Amino acid sequence: MRLANLNGRAHLLKPEGAIDIAKASNSEFGPDPMDLFTRWPEFCAWAERVDPTGPTSPYRTEDLQAPVPRPSQVFAIGLNYADHATETGLHAAPGVPSVFTKFTSSLIGPTGEITLTGPSVDWEVEMVVVISHEARNVAATNAWQHVAGVTVGQDFSDRDVQMSGTPPQFSLGKSYPGFGPTGPELVTVNELTLDTPLRLQCWVNDDLVQDGNTGQMLLPVPALIETISSICTLYPGDLIFTGTPAGVGMGRTPARYLASGDTVRTRIEGIGEMVHTFTSTREGVG
User: Fold this and answer.
1) Interval 215-258: pLDDT, tens
2) How do strand 263-268 and strand 121-122 relate by DSSP bridges?
3) Residue 210: what are its φ and ψ, rounded to 5°?
4) Torsion angle of the four alpha carbons 106, 187, 192, 212, in this order, in degrees rounded to the nearest 10
5) Is Metal-binding found in the keyword set (predicted)?
6) Regarding beta strands 98-101 and 121-122, do their DSSP bridges make them parallel or antiparallel, or are they unpaired?
7) What would the CATH number be for the domain defined by 74-279?
């Protein structure tokens, strides 16, 4: 099952087009995508009964918004790929995730323009996990049972802000408006082969800058959920950005960052692709 947010309304996506969930269910489920996560088991049971040959509507890619627009919590994992940790010169303690948050005001959909905040804005392709059931003290062996699905994410970062101060301002530097794109759709767990790594790629204009796979994670998704849920209660619709492979701008010699007019294309095999263009630095900055 593939879920999308089309102009603020929850839809099932089929190769032929989109199905408006509220209309198809005769209002058994509302149009708000967030409502699905509060009734996830019921929704999945209904979705299995949807006529696969039923009517669909065409849609435009630019009408897709963040599949989970208002999560209660957004967790993000730093340094979860060894090569990325090496290129940044930073390393998390073995077996312990480096956890921060991206504030929900940073979330946007899979296309559009993003305003540069200064001269050091960087890219990070990430697989984003969406929680389906409340999770507290979940063992790694049961973790996938608490996952609705995954989507494509970008953890854009203003490195000057992120690295300012002691300790660094990870959450603030990664939470400007537009710095948390997700989409284009949520792919449910039953569509995935969980033990098969997914390829993650990121292009800046025509230059492939990141090319890795989820099998390179130092701490896989079940371990992340086990650790986070041992401290925080995870709620339906919560997001976990799971880390990025090597190839970010700050890890290059010399460092390379985004400039006005640059287009960032973000892709995860089997999930989808996002495209964003950066515009001039906001007034008074840079």
Assistant:
1) 999 999 999 999 999 999 999 999 999 999 999 999 999 999 99
2) unpaired
3) -135, 140
4) -40
5) yes
6) unpaired
7) 3.90.850.10
Question: Mean pLDDT score of the chain, rounded to an integer?
Answer: 94
Can you say whether the dihedral through the CA atoms of 269, 236, 71, 63 is positive or negative?
Answer: positive
Beta pairing partners, 11: 4, 20
Nearest to 264 by CA among 185, 173, 181: 181
pLDDT single digits (tens) 252-281: 999 999 999 999 999 999 999 999 999 997
Q: What is the reported pLDDT for 286?
A: 35
Mean pLDDT in residue range 37-61: 92
| Alpha-carbon distance values, 259 to 53, 123, 161, 245, 263 (Å) | 46, 12, 17, 22, 9
Total-model pTM: 0.95
Section 38-46 average pLDDT: 96
Least reliable range by pLDDT among 30-34, 36-40, 164-168, 177-181: 164-168
